[in-house]
């Protein structure tokens, strides 16, 4: 019984510490980004290679709470750039390149006879 109470107490303490350090980290990140120009902010965020969910959290969970709209604007630009790159990459297919960039086959003019 005492062992379960100690485990519960230790777990609650660990969660409180985790929440504290997460809040400190969020504040540090926000302060660092706030001092940068939009281009530098985008470059710094891109260097982190964040997932889409992390980018959303950075905007919604950190920047909007403190009304740092410049950070959200930078994140929206990053997401637009990523989407454009995905579309560009999806449109490139080696098979379609091969079929559209090959010279006409020899004697293809005979096929119409």
Describe the model.
This protein has 113 residues and is mainly α. The protein has one domain. Helix content is 75%, strand content 0%. It has five helices and no strands. The chain has helices at 2-34, 38-47, 52-63, 69-91, 94-100. α2 (38-47) packs across α4 (69-91) and α3 packs antiparallel against α4. The protein is elongated, with a radius of gyration of 26 Å. The termini are far apart. The mean pLDDT is 81.
The shape, in one word, is: elongated
Biggest sheet record: none
Q: What is the arithmetic mean of pLDDT? A: 81
Number of structural domains? 1
- Helical segment count: 5
Structural class, judged by helices and strands?
mainly alpha
Report the sheet-strand fraction: under 5%
List segments where confidence is low: pLDDT < 50 over at least 5 consecutive residues. none
H-E order: HHHHH
What does the radius of gyration come to? 26 Å
Instruction: Give the tally of β-strands.
Output: 0
Distance between the termini: 93 Å
DSSP helix fraction: over 70%
Labels describing this entry:
single chain; 113 residues; mainly alpha; 5 helices; 0% strand; elongated
Helix and strand layout, with pairings?
Elements: H1 2-34, H2 38-47, H3 52-63, H4 69-91, H5 94-100
Helix pairs in contact: 2-4, 3-4
Quick rundown:
The chain is an all-alpha fold and 113 residues long. It is 75% helix and 0% strand. It contains 5 helices and no strands.
